[in-house]
Design goal:
alpha/beta, 12 helices, three-stranded mixed β-sheet, seven-stranded mixed β-sheet, TIM Barrel
Length: 356
């Protein structure tokens, strides 16, 4: 049997779950699936399994999150971001939050149909639906499955408000749906930019579009009239924090309406995966990085408490907050949340799209 390589993936480990080189990134990371390594080592292939859930609208009551409902078209994410807080969800499928999370994907092709049923229920109370809160709705497989696009078509039909969080310029492929909704006050996009340095990005988030492409996506969304927020997320001490001011400046110049930042979170299985990644890619500073993260998280790898989990605590948290506020003020980047209209919503009418 040939040895299977994890080259080109974010996680460097694929531990059994215990719970339920380019100078420029000129093309998308999914090109790596076409590469065969030498000496009998084959690249791990991405597989996609159809998932048939009974419902698609997920509710949350988190006190520090600005939405109460979300839709996730995919489970797992091929972008391979080592810091992704959604990795532990793969353990519920008896799969590893490591390499399995980014190579054993699940698609929900009936998502729009299930959402249609949810919006049709008597007494449905309209509020913005968040897309991309767990895994990215514009990861590479969206190009084939187009589940996110089908959802947007339904939301446009019903004039339902929505937000999109992504780190991919693939969102521009649906600009014909997003822009008309935004003109009605029904849509906004948050673009996550972690680093503008290709050398950092190719191991940190190996299959996500380059940071400069995300900045350009902000520009094009803004030109199309789509309110777009810049998310400097996550900020990783001693790895990406030195780029905060540069990212804020670039996002503001591209037309971002507002912005925010989030320090790195390492829940559950993410912490050991991140430690292994540090040991492999940044052995010279691994201990320092983890010590700083723990200082942000009350002496632990992760702080699950509301509010502090989003901003951190202690001197490092204060420093990041001050730096972001100064950078945003200098660049003219706002920090206010965008409000979307709810009064235009009309329940879907049967299986057919409205003709009038």
């Amino acid at each position: 049997m040939p040895v299977e390589s994890t080259s080109g993936r974010g996680a460097t480990r694929n531990a059994v779950p215990t719970r339920f080189n380019l100078p420029e990134r000129l093309i998308e990371g999914d090109w790596l699936d076409e590469v065969e390594a030498l000496d009998g080592v084959t690249q791990r292939r991405t597989t996609v399994t159809v998932e048939r859930p009974k419902s698609i609208l997920t509710r949350n009551q988190s006190a520090d999150i600005g939405f109460d409902r979300s839709v996730n078209p995919y489970r797992g994410c091929e972008h391979g971001c080592i810091y992704c807080f959604a990795r532990p969800t793969h353990a519920y499928h008896d799969l590893s939050p490591g390499v399995d999370f980014e190579s054993r994907l699940f698609v929900k092709p009936d998502a729009a149909k299930l959402l249609h049923a949810a919006l049709s229920r008597p007494g449905y109370d309209c509020a913005p639906i968040a897309l991309g809160t767990n895994t990215d709705p514009y990861q590479p497989i969206e190009g084939k499955w187009r589940v996110t696009r089908a959802i947007l078509e339904l939301l446009n039909e019903t004039d339902h408000p929505f937000t999109i969080t992504t780190k991919s310029d693939r969102v521009l492929r649906d600009l014909d749906l997003i822009a008309p909704a935004a003109h009605k006050g029904l849509a906004a996009v948050a673009m996550s930019v972690t680093s503008l340095d290709p050398a950092i990005s190719r191991t940190l988030e190996p299959r996500a579009p380059a940071g400069r492409k995300r900045i350009e996506a902000i520009r094009r969304l803004n030109e199309a009239g789509v309110p777009t927020l810049l998310a400097v997320a996550p900020v990783i001490p001693q790895i990406t924090d030195h780029e905060m001011e540069r990212i804020v400046e670039a996002g503001a110049e591209a037309g971002a309406r507002a912005g925010f930042y989030l320090p790195i979170r390492l829940p559950h299985e993410v912490a050991p995966l991140f430690r292994a990644w540090l040991d492999d890619h940044y052995p010279d500073r691994a201990g320092k990085v983890m010590a700083t993260i723990q200082s942000l998280r009350g002496g632990k790898d992760n702080d699950p408490n509301f509010f502090t989990r989003m901003q951190g605590q202690g001197p490092w948290a204060d420093l990041l907050r001050t730096r972001f506020e100064l950078a945003a003020r200098k660049a003219g980047l706002g920090t206010a949340r965008l409000k979307l209209r709810r009064d235009l919503f009309r329940p879907p009418e049967g299986r057919q799209m409205r003709l009038l």
